[in-house]
Structure formats: C-alpha cells, structure tokens
Input
Amino acid sequence: MNEIVMPKLSDTMTEGRLVSWKKRVGETVTRGEVIAEVETDKANMELEAYVSGELLEIRVQTGDLVPVGTVIAVIGKAGEKGAGAAQQSAPVPHVEPEPARPQEVASAGPPAALKPEPSRGEPQSSAAEPPAAKGAKPAEAVDLVSPEGEKQAPAAPPRPGAEESQPAGEPKEPYRQGGAPEGAAPTAELAAGAGREKAAPMVRRRARELGVDLAQVQGSGPEGRILLTDLELQEKEPAPAGQTPQAAAEAAPAPEGEGPRPMSRLRSAVARTVTESWHNIPHFTVTVDVEMDEAEAVRRQLKQSGMPVSVNDIIVKAVAMALSQFPQMNASFTPEGLQFHSDINIAIAVGMSDGVLMPVLSACQRRSLLDIAQGAKKLVERARSGSLSEQEMHDGTFSISNLGMFGVGSFSAIIYPSQSGVLAVGTVSEVARVNSGVLNSTKVMKVTLSADHRVVDGAYAAQFLAGLKEILENPVRLLI
Output
C-alpha cells in the first residue's frame, strides 16, 4: 500500500485544508490523475496521485485542516483493501476548521428531503432498519465528490442547538427516514450542495471576512463563478434598503480601537515571505528610463491584426531575452555557490484583495510573444479564481511587478526568496524631450531593478537594464 500525505505545495506552506475529494473509496486511480483539491496559504491546488491502484481509504475528510506530511489517503491493490480497512479505526489527527459566522451557517440551509421523525408510540418494523446498521462500511467509504464545476467550502461547525449530521453507522434519530437506508443521506447532502453559489474556498473565506453574502453576489467568472474581484465590488456597494441595521453593522468594518484583526492566510504568507527576503537578501536598486513609442506602435498593430497583447506581455518577453544575454540575473544564491537555471521562469505579481500571488510563466525563453500573452492571461485568471496548480506556483527564477496601471511613476519591489532580481514597472507617460534640437513628446516608462548583491554587482545590473532598454526601444526583435 502507498500512503498519500499532505504535500508542501508552496514555499511557505505548513498546513493545508482538504477542499474536496475527486475520487471515492474503491475507485481506480491512475498515476498523475487528480484525486483531491487542497487549499494552501496562497491558492487552491490539485493533488495528483503518484502511483496507480485503488483508493483504499480516505483518512482526512473535506474541510479538515492538517499539517504538511499528514497521511490523508491510502492507495494500493484491490487485494489489500482489508488491510486498509483495518487501519481505518486508528485515530485521525486533524485540526478543526475555523468557525464560520452565524449568517454563513444559516445560509447553508437545513438538510434536504428530511421527513418528520416517527411518533414515539408508533412501532418501527425491522424492514425500516437501515442496512448500514449491519456491517456498516467505514466513514471514508461514503466520502462524496463535489459536483463538477463547484469547489466545496470547508465544513463549518453548526450553531448551538442546530441539527447535526452524524458519521455513517451512527444515525441521528431526527435524520432517519422511514424505510430509507442510511445511504440516502449522502445523496440528499450532495443534492443540497449542488445549489450553492459557485466560488472557490478562498473566495468563500474572504466573503466571511468581509461579511458578504455570496447569494447576493453576481459572479463574473466562467459559468457565473464568483471571483475575488466580485467581492470587492460588492463590498463597495451600499447596503440594500431592506437590510437591517444589525446586518449592516456586521458587514461594516470594525471601528478603530478594537485591537488588531487576525490576518488572512494569504496576508500571513506574504508577511512571512517579505520579512524573510528583507532580512536575508541584501537589496540594491537601479532605475532607467525606457522610451516606449515603438513598443506601443507594435502593440497597436498586433491588436489590429487580431493578436491582442499588453504592455506587460511585451515587457515579459523583453525580460526573457535580456536574461538570456545576462544569465547571472537568472541565477540563485546558495551557501555552496550560485545556482544557474537552464529555464527562464518569470513570476508575475497578481494583486489580490488581501495580498499578492506570484504565479510562474515557465520557459519564457522558448515562448513567442503571443504565447506569453495567452499564458499570462490564463495565469492571472486562475490566480484570481483561486485555482492555481502546484506547478504554476513553483520554480520562478525572476519576477516582474507592474503598478503602471495605477499611475505609479516608479517604485522598488522586494526580491522573492530563491531569486536574485525583480523588475518594478511604472506607468507609461508622455514627457517633453529635445532630440537634435527639436522638442518632441515621447512616451517614457521607468523600470527599477531590485537585485541581490550577493549574486550580481551594480555594473552587471546596469548592463542588464541597458540590454532590456535596447530591446524595448527596438521591439522588432520581440517578433522574431
């Protein structure tokens, strides 16, 4: 048998929440097939099986938060099923999911298709006894897979006095249906979950923090999926006319003076990462002005020909070409020496409502400008919907952070650990310049390189920026 453990899916991950299982106990699993979805401190990621076989048992249930390295499932041969079931009685270490707000539990609604409990005086025939009472299967055997297209949110403890569903084999009297087997309960639960709003667990958690009712949010993602940007828009809208003062007070931000608020998992991860970088990496910065008239002309021509690319896409391609010329900027510092990387994997900063994600566009030196544009667009969409994969969060060798869309002229960015540089991109603005005695208007963009002084010196960083400037000011090379 092969034990599947909670993997370390990001550099800062110490624990993970099991969002949903994609396979049931007893189903066949092939190597590389997605068997579960896991929520890390940064995003939701798919967990793939590293061996083929049968899913013998599931040790961590949907919604559980467990440390990295905890055994969450067992895969083996069909003949080993008995051994797996014998181990299933062992205690399962898990961390209780974070408590939900009262309004979230209320929105979940009562269990579907419940019938009244039979009167005490009415005898119950043996035919109505649930079949699971005799030789009931382990609780993991009835683990449910979330409906396709929907990500199941972590389970929340019910309010005091509210009805609770019990594990298989321990039915609670109010949930027993006359003559219906226990197996009908999961079916009803699955049907009830199908009507929930389509949103990733990261979005649901953020909605709880903001006090936003997802039922009132119009999703702008695929098939009406609710994104983090939808929550931000909802938060800015005034409370509905029919909303009670109490509900409005719960949704409103806490007044100052009530003490610190706990940070979200993403905010905590960002805090740890930048602190580690600032303490361990000796930063220095170099800034240069880049004339963008030619690059803007190329972008407009490509857009008119049906190949839309953004200024950021052009910068990513230009940086990849410059890194090929100056490979030391693509290296990493290690105690044993400099680690040079064969691939140029550029991380793109994506702003979120409570932090920043750095999804990675891999092998940029082999990508065309159009390929980079399409790949970057998909990465940003997956980051904002909370559905990045493990591969899309790892192995970055250089980073780009662009605040030009906010009108920022220039700024300095913090280097991501394990990398040696990050390029901070400002806005493209028109400035007056004198060329050959003639005053002209020129589009200029400031870029600032933050570099690791253990890896490169100022002169090498300046040469890298000079090479980048030449590429951007003569963008025909980007199309080759």
